[in-house]
Give the backbone structure.
Amino acid sequence: MNWEIVIGLETHVQLSTKSKIFSGSSTAFGAAPNTQANVVDMALPGSLPVMNKSAVEKAICFGLAIGAEVAPRSVFARKNYFYPDLPKNYQISQYELPVVVGGKISYFVGKEEKTLNLTRAHLEEDAGKSLHDDFIGPLGELSTGIDLNRTGTPLLEIVTEPELRSAAEAVAYAKTLHGLVVWLGICDGNLQEGSFRIDANVSVRPVGQKEFGTRAEIKNVNSFRFLERAILYEARRQIELIEDGGTVIQETRLYDDAKDETRSMRTKEDAHDYRYFPDPDLPPLVISQEWKDRVQASMPELPAARRERYCSDLGLPAYDAAQLTVSRAISDYFEDTIKALPEGHAKLASNWIMSELSGALNRDELDIENSPVSPEQLAKMLLRIIDNTISNKIARDVFADMWAGEHNRDADAIIEAKGLKQISDSGAIAAMIDEVLAANPETIEEYRAGKQKAFNSLVGKVMKAGKGKANPTQVNEILKEKLG
């Protein structure tokens, strides 16, 4: 039987506010346990929540960025469940009336563009953290420690429609969403610190069946690689279970990256199990048009707008424009590079950033913000390709030296010190070609017999004779003239 995977993602985005969503406690990461939880976070009697305006503005910003409806009136509710690290025994969240409704996000899987519909995005507070691994209690016994520092940290939970059909699509969407929230400045995007956590709802069904299968939720995945592996494992598990005559149960599962498997955590609750009801301590959240307009005016140019500008104004292909706007840092690097180039050379800059620069960054596990070669330094090297001082091939050697830090990463200094200037003297190139032709009469005959590979072979021999420094365009032109 052919099976189809159905995936919906719920992403918890930690909003980059200085204080918590309903209290003045700090949200800074890394503090000693329980040093950033005040009376509101710990739910002490008589304490009352107060809404954080900055968290609301970040939610508005996201809603505007994805073309969603920013609700003029939304309501906070109490979501009741009982964990040791949840001091109130309920979480303040939104249910029936969320702050953001609908919206779309476009993303690329390879060179294919897809669009995913979002259901909602709602504000809520984070829970605390239970520390199980090798935690030793005050008497030396194995224990579970409770750290309430995260309690009350502002989250925006972003929920998709179940429209994803492969692990590759899920990862591509998640990366695009991650890039967007960092671009907007509403989240620092730090996966290791839990600022961006993904829950994947996975089910399978026979191809052609309209009804969804029973889903399992894989909880709190904080790595794109683990997200892909978790979905693939879970889909295989469900298919094998059904084909063996078993039944998939609705449950929450955890992904164990050491064993590359998901394992059951608890049976999955439905909304009615949480007994939602409006929080009596918080009035409805009212967002005026004027407030939305102020947020809109403060927003940066969005990735979609830059993509359109790159295609219409700079003539870049849609795929290039998409890759250059995966993150704001990459896009800004590209923008700074082309500022130092003559008009009409955006594609050259794009090619180098997406190939040589990206490859070097990946190899050395660096973010583009930490690139050893600055946009201005890269542009200076590209200028030497444009003015035919060096060929594109020689430029790769120059770039490698720049990356390694030679001659203060100055392209001109490297070219001069290593004698890499391109030979563009037509007389010198013609002399090299004559020598090659004299030594290869059989290859000439093959070319005149219609074998194009013979011409390419002659070009290669001329380039070798010139130690890679002959202008390839001139080599091709002069060689064709001489061969008639």
Notes: The chain has a mean pLDDT of 93. DSSP finds 15 helices and 17 strands in the chain.
